[in-house]
User: What shape does this take?
Amino acid sequence: MRVLHLIAFLAVLVTAVVAWTKEDHEIFDLVSAIEASEGKGTTFYSWLEVSPTASTSEISKAYRRKSLQLHPDKNKGLKNAHERFARLGVVASILRNPEKRERYDFFYKNGVPRWRGTGYYYSRFRPGLGTVVTFLIILTSGLQYLVQKMNYNRDLRRIREIRDKARAAAWGAKMTPLEGQRKVKVNLGGGPRLDEDGNVIGGRMVDMVVEGDNVYILEPDGALLPVDSDTAVAPSIKRTWFLSLVTGLLSEVAKRDGAKIEDASAVPEGAGDDSDDGSGTTSDAPGSGTVTPRDGSTSGGSKNGRAATTMAGGRRRKVVRRK
Assistant: This one.
């Protein structure tokens, strides 16, 4: 019965939200603006200083009287004088229109709703693409972290149950600790059940070892796997999808940059062998930029000097003789 009442309430709420029109949204904005500028609780009628049952002619007279008071020419030093005067005209036009006035009277008697629909807030506080993406990232990451937390708590409960079963099998119903290792079989697959042929089969039986407060799972090769809270994966913000994606991309970029640096620092084989058997050998002096000629040729010759300089990869310098 409560479910039906809840469904009916939601249906009425959805109907009311869908029924809000563009004119309703205009009234919502106007009510909020008047309360912000004239004071909380100010209504269309109280601002015009007329009764809620005032006739159209009375409203028109009140509007003319109020417009003279709020005219910008008479309130040059007053802040927001133009906005207040324009707002007064909109209020008067709503109250002088029978349909709009009827709609306003509905909210005047029942109150302006706090939740005005997603369309209302979206049209007035329209977020940008970046804001929407950021909100979705935070929302999905928070939900993923919540799921991690729930799984972690479930694993901790499961670990405690397994440890209690192993200790009960090793120490008995009184749970009196015994010295040394005790090898036991623990049912981890639930109680006995019937298979397809109607035969009774037990749950999944696992070999375990209890030694003091420690409980281990005995592997077929004899290895002991500890069963404690450390085996449960604790929740972490770093393991949410967005941070994991960013961390993975950064590590991939770092690997590529490291590979490029290693390739650039590697020296190819034979790159330092610049000697030419037909022209001569380079001088042992660092940075000399000259070549020691062979076959007794002198370095003072113009042709030989140019050739040697060119082959050494340097530039010819103009010789300035000292006086």
About this structure: Strands lie at 181-187, 193-194, 200-201, 205-211, 214-218, 224-226, 281-282, 291-292.
